[in-house]
């Protein structure tokens, strides 16, 4: 009985952490889907969301909702400026070069935040209290529900946007074939800019809602970004739902690994499974293999 | 004749000048701190404090009429850089003693250099291996992790709690704590039921805590630096963990209470006395030093002085005492340092000897508990 209780707790904790990974994974997938770039500055957008909210709350004394809006808006602008200054000017750059640029940008953003706001970890107050909620013998916090809720909303939003709006469809067209998209009159440049804006906003939102749980500092983006990237890879870098499932599986495995096998090997277990997936199903867990037409 | 007189006069004048110059020549002290990089939370207050104390000594007339000159370099927490800078201090700057570095890794890396150059080193890092075994030229001011462990175990023994769970962070600090927790357990009749770790960047420790909740442990001892322990405190509250939670001295700052919020309530930890200086009994030997340091730091930096600054305060003051008693040669300073007894500093009351270059006992720590977002002494 005790073991069963424990396992329930491991799974619930894992799902909660996993949905954080899922949300960050989604913002990776958005940029990848329309540009083919893996944006390694994504973790920094997450960090900016948290840090800017705390700044607006504590220094500008804004109410929580306004602080969140300011943080998401500012991060979105940073995403836009980043695309304009670092991605757009490079004509005919290979994806590898662009990826290296995003790594450079992530180091720059991290350094600037460290200089501006210092190295201290800071906590954001929980949105609706810290009284634990009991579910089937396990407990979770109200903040976890916020994370679940926002993740679901973001998935639905992405689905609607990419499948049912003209801009969303245009962005998907760019990812399939840039040249063809250009030929039918889609402004590829604008779509790339769009994707950075959306993914910066989603990343920042993720950063805001997880800040009360995980706390935030200038360097939280690295690990969160990496885990989110894993989630996106497991989901095959594409379909919204795949990435979400990828995140949830990663979180649950970590938690079960830490609880049942050894907490020292928690990350090793998760990354080992990631490697296995990359070897066996490089196209992701939930994607059918694509056949290249000749 | 005339020439002779002028030569004599000139040489006399030169002699006067050179003695004047000699009297004004400051005593050079080297300092290595990790002001930037991951250990900057140690290095920054240490550098601030060292400079503050040296300035004050100079303002009050220096040591035996001679000013001190502090030559500070930033190691960035990088052992390779620490080695280069230590060489620079010894060879180019020709310092008579070195204080710092901030981290155990940096300190271990430069020990061969100071031993070879025969320059005394007062390290501000905590690792017990810095002074165990004793090295002729190496001393330290930060309290050994083992003393903090002893303080916790002593309390558990007093409360007749013999079964504990430990949860340590997987970095140098946690590994050292874990080693000490395991090594000293038998001595206090304590049994470690579960031994778990977490990563320094982990954001959820409920898995480990759920496992501990299911065990027979009567107390949880967690070893880490912020923000991990704050996450653990919150997770423990979420899971309704009912056993007492002990943290390490790694989180003995107000920042921990701020991060953990309500979840910090009731958590106990061994801490240096800086934190609770105003709560100490009037007859405490360290009280005067502590209050002076806190007031001074507040005046200079508009921030609360912490242990880390305290380590540098102790190092400079110990050095000052040694120069007063042993002169300004490296060998003289070393011998006088080793002969230091009952020096009430910030980290504790130091008594060095030929067999002990760490100089502190477990009384350097005091056990505190978080109550109403503040510290109280555990009786």
Descriptive notes:
The complex is a heterodimer of chains A (294) and B (379). Chain A is mainly α and 294 residues long. Chain A has a single domain (14-280), classed as ABC transporter involved in vitamin B12 uptake, BtuC (Orthogonal Bundle), CATH 1.10.3470. Chain A contains eleven helices and two strands. Chain A has a two-stranded antiparallel ribbon with strand order 1-2. The mean pLDDT of chain A is 86. Chain B is α/β, with parallel strands linked by helices and 379 residues long. Chain B has two domains: 22-143 and 286-363, Response regulator (Rossmann fold); 146-271, Rossmann fold (3-Layer(aba) Sandwich). Helices cover 45% and strands 17% of the residues of chain B. Chain B has twelve helices and 14 strands. Chain B has helices spanning 2-24, 40-59, 79-91, 104-117, 145-158, 172-185, 206-213, 228-239, 254-260, 287-301, 307-326, 330-338; strands at 27-33, 68-74, 97-99, 121-123, 138-140, 163-169, 191-198, 219-223, 245-246, 268-271, 343-344, 349-350, 366-371, 374-377. In chain B, the strands form four sheets. Chain B has a five-stranded parallel beta sheet with strand order 2-1-3-4-5, with helices on both faces. Chain B has a four-stranded parallel beta sheet with strand order 7-6-8-9, sandwiched between helices. In chain B, strand 13 (366-371) and strand 14 (374-377) form a beta hairpin. In chain B, helix 5 crosses helix 6 (172-185) and helix 7 packs across helix 8 (228-239). The longest helix of chain B is centred in the N-terminal third of the chain and has 23 residues, at 2-24. Chain B is elongated and about 100 Å long. Chain B starts with a helix and ends with a strand. Chain A binds chain B through residues 2-3, 5-6, 9-10, 13-14, 16-17, 20, 119-123, 125, 130, 132, 138-141, 210, 213-215, 217, 220, 222-224, 254-256, 258-259, 263-264, 266-267, and chain B through 40-41, 167, 170, 196-199, 201-204, 206-208, 210-211, 213-214, 226-227, 230-231, 234, 237-240, 255, 258-259, 261-263.
């Amino acid at each position: 009985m005790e073991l069963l209780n424990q396992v329930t707790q491991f799974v619930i904790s894992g799902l909660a952490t996993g949905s954080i990974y899922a949300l960050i994974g989604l913002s990776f997938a958005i940029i990848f889907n329309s540009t083919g770039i893996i944006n390694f500055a994504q973790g920094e957008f997450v960090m900016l969301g948290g840090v800017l909210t705390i700044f607006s709350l504590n220094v500008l004394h804004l109410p929580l909702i306004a602080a969140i809006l300011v943080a998401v808006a500012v991060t979105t602008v940073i995403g836009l400026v980043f695309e304009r200054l670092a991605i757009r000017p490079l004509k005919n750059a290979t994806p590898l070069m662009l990826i290296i640029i995003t790594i450079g940008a992530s180091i720059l953003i991290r350094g600037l935040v460290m200089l501006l706001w210092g190295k201290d970890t800071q906590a954001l107050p929980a949105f609706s209290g810290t009284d634990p909620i009991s579910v089937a013998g396990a407990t979770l916090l109200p903040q976890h529900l916020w994370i679940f809720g926002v993740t679901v909303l973001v998935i639905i939003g992405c689905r609607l946007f990419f499948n049912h709006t003209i801009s969303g469809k245009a962005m998907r067209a760019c990812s399939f074939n840039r040249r063809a998209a250009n030929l039918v009159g889609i402004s590829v440049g604008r779509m790339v800019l769009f994707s950075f804006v959306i993914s910066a906003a989603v990343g920042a939102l993720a950063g805001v809602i997880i800040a009360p749980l995980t706390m935030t500092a200038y360097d939280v983006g690295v690990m969160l970004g990496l885990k989110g990237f894993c989630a996106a890879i497991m989901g095959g870098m594409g379909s919204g739902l795949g990435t979400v499932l990828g995140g949830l599986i990663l979180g649950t495995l970590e938690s079960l690994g830490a609880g049942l096998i050894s907490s020292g090997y928690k990350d090793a277990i998760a990354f080992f499974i990631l490697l296995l997936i990359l070897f066996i199903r490089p196209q992701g867990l939930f994607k059918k293999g694509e056949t290249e037409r000749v | 004749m005339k020439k002779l007189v002028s030569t004599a006069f000139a040489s006399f004048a030169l002699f006067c000048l050179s003695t004047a110059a000699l009297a004004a020549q400051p005593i050079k002290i080297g300092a290595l701190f990790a002001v930037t990089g991951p250990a900057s939370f140690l290095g920054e207050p240490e550098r601030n404090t060292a400079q503050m104390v040296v300035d004050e000594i100079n303002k009050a007339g220096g040591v035996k009429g001679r000013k001190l000159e502090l030559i500070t370099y930033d190691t960035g927490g990088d052992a390779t850089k620490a080695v280069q800078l230590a060489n620079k201090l010894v060879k180019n700057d020709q310092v008579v003693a070195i204080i710092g570095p901030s981290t155990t890794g940096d300190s271990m890396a430069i020990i061969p250099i100071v031993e070879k150059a025969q320059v005394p080193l007062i390290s501000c890092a905590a690792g017990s291996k810095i002074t165990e075994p004793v090295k002729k030229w190496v001393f330290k001011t930060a309290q050994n992790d083992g003393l903090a462990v002893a303080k916790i175990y002593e309390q558990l023994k007093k409360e007749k709690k013999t079964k504990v769970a430990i949860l340590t962070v997987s970095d140098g600090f946690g590994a050292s704590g874990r080693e000490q927790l395991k090594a000293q357990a038998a001595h206090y009749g304590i049994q470690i039921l579960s031994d778990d770790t977490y990563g320094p960047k982990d954001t959820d420790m409920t898995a480990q805590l759920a496992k501990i909740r299911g065990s027979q442990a009567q107390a949880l001892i967690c070893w880490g630096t912020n923000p991990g322990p704050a996450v653990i405190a919150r997770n423990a509250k979420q899971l309704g963990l009912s056993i007492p939670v002990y943290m390490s001295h790694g989180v003995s700052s107000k920042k921990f209470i701020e991060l953990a919020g309500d979840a910090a309530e009731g958590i106990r930890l061994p801490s240096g006395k800086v934190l609770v200086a105003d709560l100490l009994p009037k007859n405490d030997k360290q009280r005067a030093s502590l209050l002076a340091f806190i007031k001074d730091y507040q005046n200079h930096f508009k921030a609360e002085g912490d242990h880390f600054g305290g380590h540098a305060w102790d190092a400079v003051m110990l050095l000052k005492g040694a120069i007063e008693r042993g002169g300004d040669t490296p060998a003289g300073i070393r011998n006088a340092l080793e002969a230091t007894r009952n020096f009430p500093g910030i980290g504790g009351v130091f008594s060095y000897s030929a067999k002990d270059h760490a100089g502190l006992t477990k009384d350097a720590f005091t056990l505190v508990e978080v109550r109403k977002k503040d510290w109280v002494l555990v009786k």
